[in-house]
Structure formats: C-alpha cells, structure tokens
C-alpha cells in the first residue's frame, strides 16, 4: 500500500491496465504529452509510447466515435472528456451508438470502452466547469455509470470499468482530486493520512454495481456519491445522529441490496447530490425506496441537491449542498 | 531524425515540432505584401486559392505598408489602433497580477493576438455583430466599453453585468453588439451564421463576425458553420485564429493539413490566409469581407496566422509542453511593435510618444482597477446576491424554482 491522492490513484489504474492489456489505449484532449489538464495521465505517454497514449483533436464527438470504432474492432479504449460539461458534443455517439450497439446488432458487436470525465463543482468553475450530469447518462439503457469518491475506490472502480465489456461513463469528482471536501471552502485538506488514501500499487478491482458503507449507524440512511460523500460525512458528524452513509459508487446499475438493507434498518433516508434536484438520480432512488420498503419508512425521504438552475460562479457555495442543509434534513427525518 | 520518427509504431501519431528542451525554429516566410491582389467581391471560391495558400500581408519586414491590400488608413486611425492594442496588453498584465492575488479566479490573456479583434472590429460598422471567443475581448475597447465595467465582470463583484454567473473573461456587452462568451469552444462559430441570417431576413445592412481557434476547428460546429454559411449565403466573416496551440495541443494535432484557410474552398466560400500580427492586413481583409457580405455575395473564411505568445490561461504552464521562448522566434513578430515601427518609420510617432502612451494607459488601468475594487472582488466580496442564482433562468420564475429560492434564503452564506 502507498499513500496516493486521487490523481495518482487514477494514474496508477491506467498504468496497471496499459501494462496488463495491449488492447488498452488512452486518448483525449491534452492527455498525451502534457499528461492531462488535471495530470491524471502524467508520464504514461513516455512510459507506454505515443501509439498507446495520445492527444486528439478537440472534438468530443470525434473522440467518442473513434472509441466506438476501436471498441467494436477489438480494442479497449479509455478516453477522457476534459470536463463533464464538454461531453455533450459526444452525446449522440454515447446515447444512440455506444450504448445501443450490442442490442441493435443482436449481440454481434459491443463497445468495451470507458469514458472518464472530471465532474462536479467547488473549483470556481462557473457554468461550464462545474456540472454533474450523471442523470443524463443513467437515463440511457446500455451504459454503466460510475462515480468515484476516494483514491482507493477510484482505482478499483476504474480498473473494473476498463475490464467491463460494457461501455462505462466514469465520473471523477474534480474537487476531490487532491483532497476530500467537507463543505468548507476555506478548509482545504489533502488526502494525507486519510484511510481511503492507502492504495495498492498493483491491480485490484471494486466490482461495478456495489455500494460502500462509508459510515455505520442506525437512525438514518444517507446516500451520496462523488464529492457529496465527504460533505455528508461531515454533516453526519455535525448532526450527532447515528447514520449509515452509503457511497453508491455505481449509479447504473445501483446497489439495491445495500440501500434496502440500510433503509429497512433505519426507516429514514436522505439522498444528497450536486446535480439539479428535478430528474436527478435522487428521484430514481427515492421512487425505488418507496416501492421496495414503503412499510419500513418512518418519515418522508429527503433529497438535498443542487438547485434547478445553471451552476453559478461567485455564489457557488450557496448552490452546492451544504453540511447545514444536510444536517437539517437528517434532523427532519427524525421528527416523526 | 525529426520528432515523431524515432520509434517504429503502427499508428501515425502527430506531435508538435518543438517541445521543451528543443530549440525553437520556424520556416522563414516566403510571402511578401505585393504577392496578392484583391479579388472581385463577387469572386467564386476557387479564385481565392492563391490567397488561401499564400499570406495576405501589408506591412513588410521593414515596417513599410505596401501592395494592393494597403487600406491607406489615416494617421489618426493607425494611432487609435495602436492605442487600443497597448490598452489591451496593459489591461491583461494588470488582470494577471490581480489573479495571482486571488482577486479573480482565473484569467486569459490575448498576448501576441491583440491586433486581431481590434483591427477587425475597427474595419466593421458599429451595428455589425461580434460573436467572440475568450481571446477577442479587445473588440470591446473599439466599441467603447468602460474598462471599469470589464474589470467588475472579471472580479465577479456586485457591478458585474452578468451577475457573477460566468467565469472571468466571459464578457457580455450587448450595447456594443458583443455577444456573450461561452466556455464550450466552437459553439459561437455556427451560431454566428444564424445571427447573420437574421440580419439578412430583416433586410438590414449588418454583418456578423466570429472567430474559432485552430484547436476548436476540429469541433463539429466549425463545419456546421461553414456549410450553413455557404448554403444560405450568410453575411458572415468566419475566422480561424491559428495561434498554433490549444492548451498543449499543437495545430498538427488539430488537423492533418497545415493550412486551415483552404478548408473553406471545399465549402464554396472564398478564403484568405492573413498575417495575424499585421494590423493593416487584418483590417483590409475584414473590410473586403464586409463589402462582399453587404453586396449579397455571402460569407468569407479567413485563417489568421499568429502565435499564442502567452499561456492558454492563468491555470496553464506552457513550459511543460513547448519551448518557453518560442514566441520570440515567430516570423510575424509582435503586433504592437510592428504597427509602432510603421508609424515611427513614417515620422508619425516617436519612442517618446509610445512611452507616454504606455504611461497614460497604465494610469488609466490602475485608476479603473481602483474604481472597480470599490464594488468588491472575488477574494473579499461583496458578491452579487445569491438571489441571482434564480433570476433569469426563465423569463419569469416558475413555482419549483420559487420554492427552491425560498429554501436557499434559509441557508445562504453569501
């Protein structure tokens, strides 16, 4: 085990997979010589060669389409979309092509590709460097959707994504690349000494479709992913209420068992995400929880989410779910 | 052996010609101001083949203005162009310094490319539409925007006209017909065709100008723009600013060809390649394209050949991917120096006047800065109210946003 931040652990996952499988290629904007604007592919072109790790033209649609073609012809491309906000020129290729080719070809062709993309707010990125568009992909049959939160799970989940024979959209919470975020922009911790920063240097996997119990308690179930896992952790501590904290890790398909077992135990639930509330993935979870454990619920499910507005620049701390809002929601679930 | 040939690999993977540690070099230019004549305004695309493969220049290497493209500007016009370029450079320097102190989150300079938007906007009419990228802020000086207002936007204070919603340098200035800058690269290029067609539909003498980078010309929007402009003969001037670099991506990786200008020929649009650091050539080509559009012959496509002398942005460190002094070797030199030298050569300007101008503008920028920070800055606030998160999402506030707005008020910290 070595202590890594999330940039290093993602780099390590890519390094392991390039080493292990000649069919794995990395490409995207600024990811080759420069090593990516967030440095996640730093050193990999030098180590594995330009034909394994390379820069592409600035064309997200072209990147996705090329990955599709390589994928159906036996390669295993891992591509980067520099910011999740810039994924939309690739949306047609992802939604209509990559996601559906296995089904439309009667199982004769499939696309084992991974699309990595930094997402989420908290870096003063304004409208177009802050969005968290996971639900625009969880609504697409044929895709798997992963959202990592720590150095340890980012590596294990990324290796599973690359080895998956289905296409995976892999969201990386950019605010947490160099340290967890506990909701206070003036407190900027690093990953140093964090238990989830102990990462094996070798290949390991965290299965897709499995959530992680990040904290254990019995009064309420908190479900979160990405940066919000850490904000929720701080809120639970602040609330003084004993809670399960589920880091969902994979959103599609999500871990029904871990969620249902927890909600049956606690009878109360708060779902936290950065993306806008309306049609956010919290809506899906909330609907499923009431279908599956309505008679175990002691109080209404609470959703704490980003507002249904564009993501602001100067006032982003009033947009992102805060620990105070989460604490209030946890307390509200305890009222009835 | 040149870069790219050192390893035997099955895929062809292009690279930049020079990387850190390599010496900088560019092919000397073989183009001269007398090479190319102005075509007729109703020319067909193929008649501009020489213009697309050559280089439209007016200022020669000795600072003389020569040839058919010389716009014969008055001394006052030349001095105004010089003043705006100096203004932009000093403004950028000040804003970069402010960024380092946290007064703004981010900044993007126009260093080395100051002439482009300034010369081209000066060649247009006041009612023409400007649809910029983040590297054409200089157009706003030409259209008379108050510098205090520009700084207020960049530092996201209560006087920011876009209410702290966008990152710095994402200006909006409707009064000057300068359309809102968006971060996703390339989107403006195809939208500009729509702006131009609306003017035509309304039968107005208005032309739209837009730009895209060499890097972003790989996006679909570039091709949508060229095609729609061609099909509908839109009164639009479509510029590709080839400054060699899109963050770390050299233009070798943006296109398999080393000429961006000729791409428009296949769409049936007349094309020019122009020296992007030659104020007079930029002015002249833009004037020609405006006249062609006004006469109803449609679009013009221009490659503006230049070099991004500065970093992509305040978040970027170009010494990691290119020789750090490469811009000093650019055959096109520096746009400010070249116009200054031209004026001095013709005895219309002196080094002393240049120094006085720089001092005057430095004071202007410092005074605008002092005025702007009175209304707050990103490091210290005050910011626009967080109520601005909810306003202008729609024309009026629907019930679900009103509920969320009321909820936000209970929790806000700003």
* Spatial separation of the terminal alpha carbons of chain B: 59 Å
What is the CATH topology descriptor of the largest domain in chain A? Rossmann fold
Q: What is the assigned CATH homologous superfamily of the largest domain in chain B? A: Thiamin diphosphate (ThDP)-binding fold, Pyr/PP domains
Please report the number of helical segments of chain B.
12
In the sheet with the most strands of chain A, the strands line up as 3-2-4-5-7-6-12
Characterize the quaternary organization of these chains: heterodimer
For the sheet with most strands of chain B, the description reads: 5 strands, parallel
Work out the strand percent of chain B. 5-15%
Overall geometry of chain B: globular
Largest pleated sheet of chain A: 7 strands, mixed
Poorly predicted regions of chain B are: 1-5
> Stretches of chain A where pLDDT falls below 50 for ≥5 residues?
none
Structural class designation of chain A: alpha/beta
Average pLDDT value of chain A? 98
Largest interface: A-B, 44 and 56 residues
How would you explain this protein's 3D organization?
The complex is a heterodimer of chains A (336) and B (414). With 336 residues, chain A is an alpha/beta fold. Chain A folds into 2 domains: 2-199, Rossmann fold; 214-333, 3-Layer(aba) Sandwich (Rossmann fold). In chain A, 32% of the residues lie in helices and 19% in strands. Chain A has 11 helices and 14 strands. Chain A has helices at 6-20, 44-48, 60-72, 91-98, 101-104, 135-138, 151-163, 228-239, 256-266, 281-293, 323-333; strands spanning 2-3, 24-28, 53-55, 76-80, 114-119, 144-147, 168-173, 198-199, 212-215, 220-224, 243-247, 250-252, 269-276, 302-306. In chain A, the strands form 3 sheets. In chain A, strands 3-2-4-5-7-6-12 form a 7-stranded mixed sheet, sandwiched between helices. Chain A is globular and about 60 Å long. The model of chain A has no long low-confidence stretch (mean pLDDT 98). With 414 residues, chain B is an alpha/beta fold. Helices cover 35% and strands 7% of the residues of chain B. Chain B is built from 12 helices and 7 strands. Chain B has helices spanning 49-53, 75-100, 114-122, 139-142, 147-154, 187-201, 220-231, 251-254, 279-294, 335-345, 351-373, 399-411; strands at residues 129-131, 208-213, 236-242, 245-246, 249-250, 271-275, 300-305. In chain B, helix 2 packs across helix 11, helix 5 (147-154) crosses helix 11 and helix 6 packs parallel to helix 7 (220-231). The longest helix of chain B has 26 residues, at 75-100. Chain B starts with 48 loop residues before the first helix and ends with a helix. The model of chain B is unreliable at 1-5 (pLDDT under 50). Chains A and B meet through helix 3 of A and helix 12 of B.
């Amino acid at each position: 085990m070595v202590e890594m931040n999330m940039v290093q652990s993602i780099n390590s996952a890519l390094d392991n997979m390039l080493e292990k499988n000649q069919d794995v290629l990395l490409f995207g904007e600024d990811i080759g010589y420069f090593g990516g604007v967030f440095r996640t592919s730093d050193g990999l072109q030098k180590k594995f060669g330009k034909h394994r790790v390379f820069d592409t033209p600035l064309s997200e649609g072209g990147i996705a389409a090329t990955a599709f073609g390589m994928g159906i012809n036996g390669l295993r491309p891992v591509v980067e979309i520099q910011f999740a906000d810039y994924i939309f020129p690739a949306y047609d290729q992802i939604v209509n092509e990559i996601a559906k080719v296995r089904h439309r070809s009667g199982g004769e062709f499939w696309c084992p590709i991974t699309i990595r993309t930094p997402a989420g707010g908290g870096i003063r990125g304004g409208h177009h460097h802050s969005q968290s568009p996971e639900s625009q992909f969880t609504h697409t049959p044929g895709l798997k959707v992963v959202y990592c939160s720590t150095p340890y799970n980012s590596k294990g989940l990324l290796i599973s994504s690359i080895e998956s024979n289905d296409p995976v959209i892999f969201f990386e919470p950019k605010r947490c690349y160099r340290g967890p975020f506990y909701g206070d922009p003036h407190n900027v911790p690093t990953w140093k000494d964090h238990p989830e920063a102990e990462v094996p240097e070798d290949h390991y996997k965290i299965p897709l479709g499995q959530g992680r119990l990040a904290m254990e308690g019995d009064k309420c179930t908190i479900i979160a992913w990405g940066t919000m896992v850490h904000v929720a952790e701080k809120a639970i501590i602040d609330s003084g209420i004993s809670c399960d904290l589920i880091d969902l890790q994979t959103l599609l398909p999500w871990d029904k068992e871990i969620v249902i077992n927890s909600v049956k135990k606690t009878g109360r639930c708060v779902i936290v995400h950065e993306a806008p509330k309306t049609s956010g993935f919290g809506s899906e979870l909330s609907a499923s929880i009431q279908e599956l454990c309505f008679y175990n619920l002691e109080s209404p499910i609470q959703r704490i989410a980003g507002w249904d507005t564009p993501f602001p620049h100067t006032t982003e701390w009033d947009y992102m779910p805060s620990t105070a809002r989460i604490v209030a929601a946890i307390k509200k679930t305890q009222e009835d | 052996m040149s870069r790219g040939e050192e390893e035997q690999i099955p895929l062809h993977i292009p690279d930049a010609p020079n990387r850190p540690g390599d010496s900088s070099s560019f092919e000397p230019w073989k183009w001269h101001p007398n090479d190319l004549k102005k075509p007729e305004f109703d020319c067909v695309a193929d008649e501009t083949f020489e213009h697309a493969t050559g280089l439209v220049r007016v200022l020669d290497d000795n600072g003389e203005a020569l040839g058919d493209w010389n716009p014969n500007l008055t001394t006052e016009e030349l001095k105004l162009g010089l003043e705006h370029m100096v203004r932009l450079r000093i403004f950028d320097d000040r804003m970069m310094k402010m960024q380092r102190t946290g007064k703004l989150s981010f900044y993007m300079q126009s260093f080395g490319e100051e002439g482009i938007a300034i010369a081209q906007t000066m060649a247009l009419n006041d009612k023409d539409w400007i649809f910029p990228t983040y590297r054409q802020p200089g157009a706003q000086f030409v259209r008379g925007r108050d510098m205090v207002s520009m700084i207020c936007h960049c530092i996201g204070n209560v006087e920011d006209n876009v209410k702290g919603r966008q990152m710095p340098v994402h200006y909006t200035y409707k009064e000057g017909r300068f359309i809102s800058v968006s971060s996703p690269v390339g989107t403006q290029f195809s939208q500009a065709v729509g702006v131009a067609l609306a003017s035509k539909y309304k039968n107005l003498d208005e032309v739209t100008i837009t730009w895209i980078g060499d890097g972003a010309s790989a996006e679909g929007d570039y091709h949508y723009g060229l095609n729609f402009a061609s099909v509908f003969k839109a009164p639009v001037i479509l510029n590709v600013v080839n400054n060699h670099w899109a963050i770390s991506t050299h233009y070798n990786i943006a296109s398999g060809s080393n000429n961006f200008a000729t791409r428009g020929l296949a769409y049936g649009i007349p094309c020019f390649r122009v020296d992007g650091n030659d104020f007079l050539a930029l002015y002249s080509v833009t004037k020609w394209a405006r006249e062609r559009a006004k006469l109803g012959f449609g679009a013009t496509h221009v490659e503006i050949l230049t070099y991004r002398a500065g970093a992509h942005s305040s978040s970027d460190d170009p010494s990691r991917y290119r020789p750090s002094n490469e811009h000093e070797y650019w055959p096109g030199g520096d746009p400010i120096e070249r116009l200054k030298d031209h004026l001095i050569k013709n005895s219309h300007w002196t080094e002393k006047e240049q120094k006085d101008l720089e001092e005057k503008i430095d004071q202007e920028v410092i005074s605008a800065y002092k005025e702007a920070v009175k209304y707050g800055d990103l490091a210290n606030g005050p910011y626009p109210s967080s109520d601005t998160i909810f306003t202008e999402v729609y024309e009026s506030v629907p019930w679900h946003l009103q509920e969320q707005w009321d909820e936000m008020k209970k929790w806000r910290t700003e």
